[in-house]
Design a protein that fits this description.
This protein is α/β, with parallel strands linked by helices. Helix content is 21%, strand content 25%. An 8-stranded parallel sheet has the order 8-7-6-5-4-3-2-9. Strands 10-11-12-17-14-15 form a 6-stranded antiparallel sheet, with helices on one face. Strands 29-21-20-19-32 form a 5-stranded antiparallel sheet, with no helix packed on it. The N terminus is likely disordered. Bound molecules: beta-D-galactopyranose. The site of beta-D-galactopyranose has 11 residues, from loops.
């Protein structure tokens, strides 16, 4: 590991486990196996174990005739329960011949002939969540089986994984997913690797962060939260979407071309959702550049559903080669405002009304990182297609649970943008706040300018953070305290690491769960030091990592 300017308190036995290999940095130019997030169909949320060959061939036909294939939905993914309860005499997996009478290789050829790719589900444990044979101890054999069947995408779940003696559970997951990573990447044609490991740590902030740390290096996408409500599930489908949406907002810094955070399936025929909620779901996932995997009975979707799922302007955002994830600019309990950049320099403004009634909000362009004066911007509403001129601010009115997405074109003269938005302690969701007397506190987010930070690049990965409420002051560290002081001074520069640490270049990490913030020694396993920043912030290389 590259030495940094401060001491990381890493237990010696863990130090050896750090950086076992140099991470391959994905980029727009070199995004690896999956340059843009996957789009397609999976049976799970809608049908659970009731999958079969006919469902997949009917779905493919419908995706073709209804135009979904043409707008980019080109993956057909089998989920759990496709196999037999026993392995063959040679140890290989076998498909259920009642469900798949022509066999999985036949289905893979069928998919290819019709312009699709076939994906499959397995599990890193002894059994899948549905009780079918897991892959533990059979990794290479199973990978070769899948490839020989014509499959190019694997979702690897994490049910029934127990730690071997002497290892923590999170270390066990790292070893097993690492083994799969090694097996898959050594193949002549590696399979796309969707990792479910983080979902098994979603209720422990520091374990979750540790697991997330290696995830982008091992695979192309990862499920990180609980399942979106299945078709027959009890409870609120909207709440389950909001739950996964919230988890995704914590993960902005991990996403990059070639690796995507996966907040789970789109469920456009879920009986518990209103039309507005379904459209919101799609608009949010598109803004995130999240996988767009539909779990619904596509032949029976209404034309209105097909129309919003086929919105080319939103799909272009989703498939934008920069793969930035829209990040929170502000949040006040009613409106969530998110923003990101697109590869041509445009800015995206996504607004969600989480409240129970129609409401209006005004968003200053400075909050989107567009702070040059005397600039006029063209803002296109990607749902209605309407173009308006924005000068200074944009006013948005939204029905309850609705989402709007605007794509803002920047005139040449006004093309400078600065990553701007919430800086928040991700485990608690509390917002870093510029408080009176130049103090810095962590408080409930209320969408004030004192909670929106402009993050200026200061060479390399050095950053300066200034609140919109007073752009003459910057976040400063001094003798264990964090405060606001005149920008440009010493003690004002910080670096953000993939682990979420915000480290002062003079030493020490921002620390704070609630109340007054502090600067303390950077500790790799300290949940009070995990922060989310706006999208587009350059991460420091050589992030401290720990694999246990
Ligand atoms: C869950 C997973 C679901 C589905 C299911 C199959 O763990 O999150 O997406 O794959 O297992 O049993």
């Amino acid at each position: 590991m590259r030495a940094s300017s401060h001491t990381w308190e890493i237990p010696a036995k863990m130090a050896l486990l750090m950086f076992p290999m140099l991470p391959v940095q994905a980029s727009v130019e070199s995004p690896g196996l999956l340059p843009t997030p996957p789009m397609g169909f999976n049976n799970w949320s809608r049908f659970q174990c009731e999958l079969n060959e006919t469902l997949f061939t009917e779905t493919a036909q419908s995706m073709l005739t209804r135009g979904l294939r043409d707008v980019g939905y080109n993956r057909l993914n089998l989920d759990d329960c496709w196999m037999r309860y026993d392995r063959a005499a040679d140890g290989s997996l076998q498909w259920n011949t009642t469900k798949f009478p022509h066999g999985i290789p036949w289905l893979a050829s069928y998919a290819t002939e019709h312009g699709f790719h076939l994906g499959i589900y397995e599990d890193a444990g002894n059994e899948t969540c549905g009780g079918y044979p897991g892959s533990y101890g059979h990794e290479k054999q199973d990978a070769e089986t899948f490839a020989s069947w014509g499959i190019d995408y694997l979702k690897l779940d994490g049910c029934n994984v127990w730690a071997e003696e002497g290892r923590s559970l999170r270390e066990e997951y790292r070893l097993r997913y690492g083994e799969w990573h090694d097996v898959l990447s050594a193949m002549p044609q590696p399979l796309i690797f969707s990792e479910s490991a983080p979902a098994y740590f979603a209720d422990n902030a520091s374990d979750w962060a540790v697991v997330m740390d290696w995830i982008p290096e091992y695979g192309e996408l990862a499920r990180h939260s609980t399942d979106v409500l299945v078709y027959v599930g009890e409870g609120s489908a909207w709440d389950s979407i909001m739950n996964n949406y919230d988890y995704n907002t914590l993960l902005v810094r991990y996403q990059k071309p070639g690796y995507y955070n996966d907040p789970d399936f789109l469920i456009p025929d879920h009986p518990g959702l209103t039309q507005t909620e379904k459209k919101s779901h799609f608009a949010l996932w598109a803004s995130f550049s999240a996988p767009l995997i539909i779990s619904a009975y596509i032949p029976d979707l209404s034309d209105e559903d097909i129309a919003f799922l086929s919105n080319k302007a939103l799909i272009a955002v989703n498939q934008d080669p920069l793969a930035q994830q829209a990040a929170l600019v502000s949040r006040d309990g009613t409106f969530d405002v998110l923003s990101r950049s697109l590869v041509n320099g445009d800015r995206l403004l996504t607004v969600l009304n989480r409240g129970a009634v129609t409401a209006k909000t005004t968003i200053s362009l400075a909050r989107l990182g567009l702070s040059q004066s005397n600039c006029q911007y063209q803002a296109r509403d990607l749902v209605t297609g309407k173009v308006s001129t924005a000068h200074g601010a944009i006013e948005i009115q939204l029905d309850s649970h609705a989402t709007s997405v605007h794509r803002i074109a920047l005139p040449k003269r006004c093309s400078t943008t600065t990553p701007t938005g919430m800086v928040f302690h991700t485990p608690s969701g509390l917002c870093m706040t510029a408080s009176s007397g130049n103090t810095v506190t962590f408080e409930a987010c209320k969408a004030s300018d004192s909670q929106v930070w402009s993050v200026a690049a200061k060479g390399g990965s050095k950053l300066e953070l200034s609140p919109l409420s007073d752009n003459s002051v910057c976040l400063t560290a001094q003798k264990g305290a964090v405060s606001l002081a005149k920008c440009g001074g010493s003690g004002n520069t910080w670096q953000h690491f993939i682990t979420g640490h915000l480290s002062n270049t003079r030493g020490g990490c921002l620390t704070g769960e609630s109340g007054k913030g502090a600067v303390q020694a950077c500790v790799v396993d300290n949940a009070a030091q995990i922060f989310g920043l706006p999208s587009g912030v350059k991460l420091a290389d050589g992030a401290p990592r720990w694999f246990s």
